[in-house]
Amino acid sequence: MTSRPYRSAVREQAAASTRAAILDAAETLFAQDGYARVTIGRIAQAAGVSPNTVYVAFGTKVGLVRGLTERASGEDSIQETLATIAEADDADRIVDLAVRSAGDVVHRHSRLMTVLVANASADPEIGATFQGTERLLRERFGLITARLEALGALRAGLTTDRATDALAYYLSPESWLRLDTLGWTPEDQTAWLREQVRHALLGL
User: Fold this and answer.
1) Are the CB atoms for 151 and 91 separated by under 8 Å?
2) Of 72, 80, 146, 156, which one is least surrounded by beta carbons within 10 A?
3) What mean pLDDT is predicted for residues 131-149?
4) Nearest to 187 by CA among 73, 81, 104
5) Mean pLDDT, rounded, for 38-50
6) CA-CA distance, 170 to 189, in Å (whole number)?
7) Got the DSSP string for 114-128?
8) Is residue 25 helix, strand or coil?
9) In angstroms, what CA-CA distances link 150 with 59, 77, 91, 132, 147?
10) Is 120:177 a contact under the CB 8 Å cutoff?
11) Residue 129 contacts residue 116 (beta carbons within 8 Å)
12) DSSP states of 26-48 as a string?
């Protein structure tokens, strides 16, 4: 009676593992050799699957980039941070949580972020994917600035829209990646960006 559901669960787990292996291989190769130079065949070989498996799972290289983006943006830690911020009463802690969370995501997925930033202008489909990521980031930043406004913590004269602009400016992937190229450590990046955001949003 239970064999069929069990087999289904095993198949789903195997399919999820295969998708993860394909995404891991794609992310590594895109960062290592550049998006344009990597073929589906190479990704399949690195993941230990057939090219047809990659096509069935993701369709195209752009589909792989979308898959990588969805995986990064759907991490449980992001929702956990937003939930904590929604209940927080200390503005300084909210800023710290926002900066640390943004930095952690970018650093965990720096290879993907580099692919998106480097190819957004040259490839319209990747550009559209990047724009979708930016819209999602802005929505999440809007939740953070709305909480600060509800606490009366935004500096005088600052609207939530402008506060969201500031978060998008300082905490975008491009900002973190630029500091990386300048040789800043993740700790230095976090400390400096936290101070900029505190001043821009809270006037501290």
Assistant:
1) yes
2) 156
3) 93
4) 104
5) 93
6) 11
7) HHHHHHTTT-HHHHH
8) helix
9) 44, 23, 10, 27, 5
10) no
11) yes
12) HHHHHHHH-GGG--HHHHHHHHT
pTM equals 0.80
Let me know: does 35 contact 61? Beta carbons within 8 Å: yes
The whole-angstrom separation of Cα 1 and Cα 7 is: 11
Instruction: Report residue 117: phi and psi, to 5°.
Output: -65, -40
Query: pLDDT per residue over 49-91, tens digit each?
Result: 999 999 999 998 889 989 998 888 888 889 999 999 999 999 9
Is the CB of residue 197 less than 8 Å from the CB of residue 96?
no
Calpha distance 47→56 (Å, rounded): 14
**Residues 6 or more apart from 119 whose CB is under 8 A from it?**
35, 36, 126, 127
| Alpha carbon 109 to chain centroid, angstroms | 7
Cβ–Cβ < 8 Å for 100, 158: no
Q: How far, in Å, CA of 87 to CA of 92, rounded?
A: 13
Going 185 to 111 to 161 to 97, the CA torsion angle's sign is: negative
46 to 23, 41, 60, 118: CA distances (angstroms): 10, 9, 16, 23
